[in-house]
Amino acid sequence: MNIASAILHLFPGKSPLKDFEIRDDSDGKGPYIAEWNLEEPQPTEEELQAAWEAYLEAEANKPPELTEMEKLQKENALLKAQITAQSERSDFIEDVIAELATQLYK
């Protein structure tokens, strides 16, 4: 378990080294919370394990990051749709003006 990631999953927006500190003394006991500077109570080992599992699940279900090319293709499709919509609106307005002109000059 990555304790820092579990804590950040429980408390989004908090800052390691400022709000809490994780240490590993290389004594075989593994990492632990050395300092806790938050008003919220320090999470228990069980809460940290549950948060770690929730974090892993959230990461696994996160949609994949788009490549630069995919982002540009998506943006291009959106821009094309916007241009088409603007063009259709412009055609409609021209038709309305033409109809009004024929009514006016009868």
From TrEMBL:
Pfam families: XkdW. It comes from the Bacteria. Residues 3-60 form the Bacteriophage SP-beta YorD domain. This is Bacteriophage SP-beta YorD domain-containing protein.
